[in-house]
Amino acid sequence: MKKRTIAFAVLAMFFCMGVWATNAISADKIKWGVLIDLSGPTSDWGKNQVKGQLDAARWVNENGGINGKKLELIVIDDGYKVPRGVAGYNRLVDSEHVLGLYIQSTGTTMTLIKKIVKDGVVTIAASFTSKFQNPAKTPFSFFVSPSYGTMGRIAIKWIKDSWKDKSRNPKLCFLYPDNKYGRDILNVCKDYAKKIGVDVGPDQVINWPTRDATPQLMNMKRYNPDYAYITSTAMNGAVILKNAKALGIKTKFISNIRNFEETLIKLSGGAANGTYGVHPIAPYGAEVPGMKKVVESNEKWHKGEMGTNVYVEGWVNILAVTNALRIADKAGKLTPTGIREAFEQFKGFDTGGLAPPLTFTKTDHRASMAAKIYEVKNDKIEAITSWIDLPRDKTYFGK
Amino acid sequence: MPAGLFHENYQSDERVFQTWFVKAWLIAFLIACALFPLMASKYMVSIMTEAGIAIIACHGLNVLTGFTGQISLGHAAFLGVGAYTCTILTGKAGIPFIVALPLAGVMAAMVGMIFGIPSLRLRGLYLAIATIAAQFIIEFVIRRWDSLTGGVEGLFVDPGTIGPISFDDHINLYYLTFILAVLATMAVKNIVRARSGRAFVAIRDRYLAAEVIGVHVFKYRLMSFAVSSFFAGIAGALMAQYLQVITHESFTIHQSIDYLAMCIIGGLGHILGGIYGVGFWFILERFLEVATTSLNTAFPDHMTWFVSIREIVFGCVIVLFLIFEPDGLAARWRTIRAYWKLWPFSY
After folding, report:
1. Could B300 and A39 be called an inter-chain contact, meaning their C-beta atoms sit closer than 8 Å?
2. Topology alike, domains A28-146+289-368 and A148-279+372-389
3. Which CATH architecture has domain A28-146+289-368?
4. Which of A89, A91, A105, A176 is the best substitution to test chain B (most B C-beta atoms within 10 A)?
5. What angle do CA A283, A284, A286 make, to 5 degrees?
6. Contact flag B245-A38 (C-beta cutoff 8 Å)
7. From the list B245, B246, B254, which residue is nearest A114 (CB)?
8. CA A36, CA A54: separation in Å to the nearest integer?
């Protein structure tokens, strides 16, 4: 009994020392929060994303930091659950006093949206819904990609532009889960498809976790669309592609950004070959100037682990945040408002080709309007178009 | 002076506070809770508010599962009913918050009774499956009844007000939750002490015998569902105030299972079980939070190793409690107290 007590006391002491040691060093540090799913249904994605962000932060710190200050990421796992996300947000903002944070889950971001405005904390969202792009409504929300709706429109534009048969319009179906994320693009994309002459067939709702999409695919086959646009995640989207291959469906599948990543190719076991994806972020290992440090870091710090475009996206997020923090620091305004103003000075900020140049203004938080269409060939992601750019007009702004 | 606690009639046996000592401690505890927001950080106050909401929800689940023996895996859905009822009543119908709050409980109780009807025929695992159905049906309705619930977009919650007090301020919300949690504890204690409570326990322990001695099994089972859901509804209304936006994702089956786990840890069938369970759960959660954050900061390369600690520890805790402490912390506390009462002359 006594031995056990002593052992417990020693362990407790070590733990306390650990806590003390991590809290002690805090001078010249900039705290940034990361609220992400590392144990829930989207954890495969979250782990790659957080890996990219941490590596990028490490690289930034090894290369001068934020004007000499260290960037410290405080990562909290929310398990993709809203109440835990809210608790994590409260902890980051009220207890850790971060200057800003990254929030992954759409549900958590939507729940917190009023609070974020009230607290005045800069947030980088992983949820690329255009509802966060209008600064009149969400002045502190930013993200580094075109919105889901814009990417959907880019895919539809590509369908129309590459369509050869002049006797009829191309036919398109939307496949999505019945949640906020899944339904986000529907109104905008259907309206746009109608405008440019792409016929839209019946929606197919494929919920998470997807175990079998055969009934929905059979249903879709009756309409026999030329293209199907998948809004999903790699884990769930792989099931759709596998089922489609088994059923011998001829429709060409276009995956959205959250579905189209290297993991999809791995999980679908070859069924992803010949399918398309619309994506603004360069795939891992692409020949762009900014990729060198990304690949080097991954190989140095995670030997033998697969790099993905989610990992690259993590880098883009941190590079954008770093740039904003540098501007704010230089202006001597290292406060949430100062960081917001710093973001709004972005004018074609170049991440070395990892993402299209980022631009934010006081009235428009649309980072960019461009993406490329990729095809999976021999289990590799290859770009088949150059940047497809949409005009920065107000038609679908904030919708 | 008697050296111990002796009861000479049933009335004294059933007294809420058996000794002045208990009463004094309880009052000290309540005063500490009341003064808490003055000393604690904003973050701690929000954590305590969450804990208070969980206590109300757990009391409800404890009545149903702990005292009546009906397993429910749909408790969070009833919280959802309460949350949406309160929000819609205050936001769309313009009913004052103080009226909408109890109505949220009533609405949840009615929905709970509907899903309680199968309990006439179903027991044990089968009933558990039926309550899972409640969870999914309610979630589906919330998701699809766009015109009322806002569908997948969710609803913004107008901060409730009682007179000049607005619950936009989280300290006010803390006090509201605190008062309601105390009321809920008193209510459960009194329900359990009364005829209905004895009927619940009889049904749990041997429903056939209960029926033979004249307990209307169906009536009391339904009543148990109603009481349980009423508490869930109130907790849900508070949760809506706390979250400020509610979506179907706020009330998932994971939440239901968490509440059940809290009750198991605290002690099913003990009034204080809900409180101990919630306390243990939140303390463990904060502890793991600090532990994983410091480990992550110390070893950022191996972050993915530590993130699952929470899930693993919680899983282990529930399994260990089921094996070594099936009656939960409440029973353990009783044993400890009994030991110290007679210490050092325990014979």
Report:
1. no
2. yes
3. 3-Layer(aba) Sandwich (3.40)
4. A91
5. 70
6. no
7. B245
8. 13
The H or E element containing residue B2 is: none
Residue A6 structure tokens: 């002593």
Instruction: Tell me what the mean pLDDT of segment A264-268 comes to.
Output: 92
**B344 burial type by CB count under 10 A (0-12 exposed, 13-18 middle, 19+ buried):** exposed
Q: Which residue from A39, A82, A178 is facing B310, i.e. has the nearest CB?
A: A39
Quick: pLDDT tens for B183-206. Answer: 999 999 999 999 999 999 999 999
Distance between CA A281 and CA A244 in Å, rounded? 26
Contact with chain A for residue B50, Cβ under 8 A? yes
pLDDT of A24: 42
Please state which architecture CATH assigns to domain A148-279+372-389: 3-Layer(aba) Sandwich (3.40)
Which one-letter amino acid corresponds to residue B275? I
CA atoms of A273 and A16, how far apart (whole Å)? 52
* Average per-residue pLDDT for chain A: 88
* B303 with A75: Cβ contact below 8 A: yes
What is the three-class DSSP state of B89? helix
Residue B5: pLDDT over 60: yes
Model confidence at B20: pLDDT above 50: yes
Asked if the model's pLDDT at residue A25 lies above 50, the reply is no
pLDDT in tens, A106-151: 888 888 888 888 888 999 988 898 888 889 888 999 999 999 999 9
Distance (Å, whole) CA A316 – CA A305: 19
pLDDT digits (tens, 9 = 90+) for A30-75: 999 999 988 777 888 888 899 999 999 999 999 989 999 999 888 8
3-class state of residue A44 by DSSP = helix
Q: State whether residue A61 sits within 8 Å of chain B by CB.
A: no
Tokens representing B209?
């015998």
CB B318 within 8 A of CB B332: no
Nearest CA in chain B to A302: B301
- Among the ranges given (A106-110, A274-278, A331-335, B37-41), the one the predictor scored with the smallest mean pLDDT: A106-110
Minimal Cβ distance to A38: which of B239, B298, B307: B307
Distance from CA of B51 to the nearest CA of A (A): 11
Q: Are B176 and B258 in contact (CB under 8 A)?
A: no
CATH number assigned to the domain covering B42-342: 1.10.3470
Of B128, B66, B73, which is closest to residue B268 (Cα–Cα)? B66
User: Strands A276-279, A171-176: parallel, antiparallel or unpaired by DSSP?
Assistant: unpaired
pLDDT in tens, A243-255: 999 999 999 999 9
The SS3 call for residue A58 is: helix
Q: How confident is the model at residue B146 (pLDDT cuts 50, 70, 90)?
A: confident
Q: Is B134 exposed, middle or buried (0-12, 13-18, 19+ CB in 10 A)?
A: buried
How far, in Å, CA of B253 to CA of B237, rounded? 18
Q: pTM of this prediction?
A: 0.81
Query: Which sequence spans correspond to the domains of chain A?
Result: 28-146+289-368, 148-279+372-389
